[in-house]
User: Fold this.
Amino acid sequence: MMTNEEREIMQRLQEPFPAEDVEWRVQRTVKTKHGYKAIVCAYLTNRAIQNRLDEVVGPFNWKNEYREWREKGVLCGISINVGDEWITKWDGSDETSIESTKGGLSNSMKRAAVQFSIGRYLYQLDEQWVPIKDKGDHYINTKVKVRGQEEWVTGYWDTPQLPGWALPQRDNVDPNHAQSSNSPSEPVHSNRGKDVELPTREMIEYTEELERTLDLNDAERLDIFSRTNQHVNVHSVSQIYQSSKDDLSRYVESIRYAALIKKEVDVAEVPQQVILNWLSENYGTTIESFKNLCTVANKNAFEAVKQRIAKEQEVA
Assistant:
C-alpha cells in the first residue's frame, strides 16, 4: 500500500503539462479527397520531464542511468528517492534514424518516465489528422504511397490544440465547472461502506468526449456501464460519473476503441458503411453502427481498421 508521501508524489508527477511542453510528431502521411494530411501524435519534451522531476522531488532526489539494449537499443532507468529508498523503473527504445544515439537516449528516458505516470495521460489522446498546406507551424517533406505509387509531399502543418482535460487546471479554468465540496477528485464515503477514489474532472470530460463521438443516448450509456460493472446498480447517467474511479475506468475501456475507430473513419473520410460491412464480415455478425463495437473492440481491432482505411485510400 502506498504511503501518503508516495501518493502525493505520484499525483504531482502525473499532472498534465502546459501545451508548450508537448511536442507533436508525424507518424504517417496520407492522401484524402481533400488533399494530403499528416497524422501526428503528442509527446513530452525531455526537458519538461526533467523539470517535473526537479519540481516534485528536487534535483538531488532523482537520477537516471543508461544501458545498452539489443544491437542498437538503449535502456533508461529513472530512480526517485522516496523516504530514504531509491525506487527505479526502466524502459527502452531503439536508436532513431536522425541523431541515433541522442534520439535513443532521449526516447528511452521518455518511456521510463511514463512508468512513473509522467505524461501517461497523453496515451489517451487520439491521433490527430492535420492538413498539409502552403504555410504553417511545421515543415514536412516526405513520401506518400498512392495507388501503389510513391509521391513526394512538401508543405507545412499546424500544431493541434490539446483538449481541456489534457491541460493543467490553471490553464483550463471554467467558472461554470468550478469544483465544489463534492468535487469528484476527492474521496468520499461510498454505499459499500468504505472510502473509494472517485474520478477526476478530466477523466469525466474524457468519458463524455467518447460518448459524444459514438452519439450514445442515456439508455445505451447505462446498459454498457452495467454490463462492465455488474456489481454496481445505476439508474441515471449522473450516477455513472459519480461511480468509483475503477468502475468508470472499466466503462471507458469498454467504449474507447469503438470511439477511436469511428473517429478514425470520420477523419479519413472513408464511407462508414464500407468499414461497417468489413467489420461485420470479420466479426461474423451484423455491425450496424460503431456503437455495436462497445465492449467488443480492442487495440487490435483499431489497428486493423487503420490498415483497412489505408487500403481503401490507395484504391480511391
